[in-house]
Amino acid sequence: MNTIENINKTIEENLAVMVYFSAPTCNVCHALKPKLLEELDKNFSEFKVESVDISVEEDIAPHFGVYAIPTVLIYLDGKEFVRKSRHMSVNEVIDEIKRPYEIMTS
């Protein structure tokens, strides 16, 4: 089970982290996540992914200011870089990450 401390530790210790907020009742969440993971895997070798089920881990979402699902938070070098909620495309997320990620890893 995830905790705020575990997620913060992952963010601090890794160059690139995606925190994915979803719930079992969210169909969009289930459709989006595998596509997003596949593209991260293909394009960015350094990414760590933390998944948060807001129906179980209720204190985590408000701590990160997340009030809608799905929400994707991307952290680069310990700082929040991208925040997308509800309506997003996989390409949109990947495009926003690509350039800064390449700069950081080159």
Automatic annotation (TrEMBL):
Q: Kindly give the InterPro entries that the UniProt entry links to this protein.
A: Thioredoxin-like_sf, Thioredoxin_domain
State the superkingdom: Bacteria
Which residue range or ranges hold the Thioredoxin domain?
Answer: 1-102
Which SUPFAM superfamilies does the record cross-reference, listed alphabetically?
A: Thioredoxin-like (SSF52833)
Signal peptide residues on this chain, from the entry's feature table: none
Give any GO molecular function from the UniProt entry.
protein-disulfide reductase activity
One Pfam family this sequence matches: Thioredoxin
Gene Ontology, cellular component aspect? cytoplasm
Its recorded name reads Thioredoxin
Organism in which the protein naturally occurs: Sulfurimonas aquatica
